[in-house]
Amino acid sequence: MSWSVEKSAELYGINSWGSGFFRINSSGNVEVTAFKDKPGLDLHRLVQDLVDRGVRPPILVRIPNIVQTRVALISQCFQNSIRENGFQGTYTGVYPIKVNQQRHLLEEIVDFGKENSLGLECGSKPELLIALAFMDTPHAHIICNGFKDVEYIETALLSQKLGRSTFIVVDRLAELSIIIASSKKLNIKPKIGFRAKLNTQGSGKWVESSGARSKFGLTPSEIVHAIDILKNENMLDCLELLHFHIGSQVPSIQAIKASIKEAARFFTELFTLGASPKYIDVGGGLGVDYDGTGKTDSSTNYSEQEYANDVVSILQAICDERNVPHPNIISESGRALVAHSSILIFDVLGMNEVQKHSLPFTIDKKDSLLVKDLLYIYENVNHKNINEFYNDLIEKKNDTLQLFSFGGLSLEQRAKAEDLYWAISTKMTKIAKDAGADAEDIYWNLQRELSDTYFCNFSVFQSLPDSWAVNQVFPVMPIHRLEERPDRRATIADLTCDSDGKLEHFIDTDAGSEQGYIEVHDLIPGQPYYLGAFLAGAYQEILGDLHNLFGDTDTVHITINENGTYTVDHVLYGDTVTEVLSYLDYGRSELVELVRKATEQSILSGSLSHTEARLLMKHYEEGLAGYTYLED
Prior knowledge:
Layout: H1 5-12, H2 14-17, E1 22-24, E2 30-32, E3 41-42, H3 43-52, E4 59-62, H4 64-85, E5 91-96, H5 103-113, E6 119-122, H6 125-134, E7 141-144, H7 150-159, E8 165-170, H8 174-186, E9 192-195, H9 220-232, E10 239-243, H10 253-272, E11 279-281, H11 304-321, E12 328-331, H12 335-338, E13 342-352, H13 369-380, H14 386-405, H15 411-435, H16 440-450, E14 452-456, H17 460-463, H18 465-469, E15 476-478, E16 488-493, E17 502-503, E18 506-508, E19 513-515, E20 518-520, E21 530-533, H19 540-543, E22 554-560, E23 566-572, H20 577-583, H21 588-605, H22 610-625
Parallel strand pairs: 4-22, 5-6, 5-12, 6-7, 7-8, 8-9, 9-10, 10-11, 11-12, 14-16
Antiparallel strand pairs: 1-2, 2-3, 4-13, 13-14, 13-21, 15-21, 16-17, 16-20, 18-19, 22-23
Helix pairs in contact: 4-5, 4-11, 6-7, 7-8, 10-11, 13-14, 13-15, 14-15, 15-16, 21-22
């Protein structure tokens, strides 16, 4: 059967999770665009251009145009809903700095957000210091969350003197007394927000960060007590905002609607208690459709417009019911703004194949009964006896391991037995596929067993930590050769020596769920084969760690022009070995001197020649100056 780019698009689901930013062109390469119905940028050609410029795989490609489009989209969705519903409040967003703190990206977000008064959310004192330095957008807000000490609070108060609209959100009741004392000391009226601890929980991977047992927030009892404190201080008018948060990446709109309803009740009850807040901060949670299925925790069953419609309409209905003025809405959508804008592109270094389409040996009389039994299965399995022979195969596999462990099977015989196992599994898979529903379980069990391993030039822990930590599914696919049928199925292993350093959760577009392998092409000797991990712009860079001392990758910021050409705005070269080691207090000079002394001792003992010592030191110093990833 012939293959086509349309079949590749269906196989990898790119038209579902790509959100219009990613597609496959007629050359069989993935292209990216920030403009609908405009020419796109060919990612494979981009990588070739970047390599020619000295940029090294793995490469993190950031597309600021996409961030600009996402900022405008979410703001426009709320404006549409406000206009259509006759809602009396306004909408402004804030970008949570924690989602991705990289300076160039933050500067671009602030710049792109000026038209829509996009502000910043800070979860710590260092993030507040960033916000004060880079954000001066008129009518934009700074939201201060997280644990706060006196210095944090006083800095937030003093920022009002710079013309900033800075809200200090009370996440813990103990913070309120510090805010009051600091405001009196500085004689600055605070803009206070209360974070409500809702009973409603979100859904998805981060569900435990919400609900009655969540880390932050005031209980109903604490809110009532906090209102009394403000009344006694004659500061009730300082309470301007109610905030809540139901977790990150909420896949279900039902969970969002339930939380908005409960929060709206909190908001209207504050008026009953004598307060008159003007703002409600609905927090984060707006999800990104990582797999396009609408059925998993990595997906969403709603659009950005549906999200905005539900937030606006529910707040309006409950406020109208209680005759309370419509609030100004703030949202903290960070993942939804930046996830689409980053693509990790890495090359495949090699593969380990387990399928065997023929036997690499012949059977002789000296072979064990176990090997002969396996040969019988190999020669006689068919669609009629596949269930019986599959059970026999599993039994023989266990027998192989037990006999070898107890000394009843030689290494040579174990090798033959295992080769036969893989040959039988390969043959059984074809039979099971043809048998359809009658052997479906066997087919999928064998598919998992027969997946190849593609060894790739990147670190899961540095570049895609959520795939390891919470089994987040990122769209992964080849960025070229998509006019060819991908005949192999593989899991992806990274460079680290950790057994968890792998990707083994991928999108199953047929079933609308996950599968344990990805379809890939045969490797062609001498030709690079590139894979891309998409929607990697949220959290991954800042959460990445130095497992096996693999550092930051080379990163490029690319502006896509409307005619499909591009401009390289920034190139940020990844960590050298010296830089990574310096994070752990290893000094380059000290390391070089220690190795030099060791070479001198070896020269004296006669185990190392002067030429060998010179070559060793050359490699050592070049290694310290080099990329932490593999280079040609």
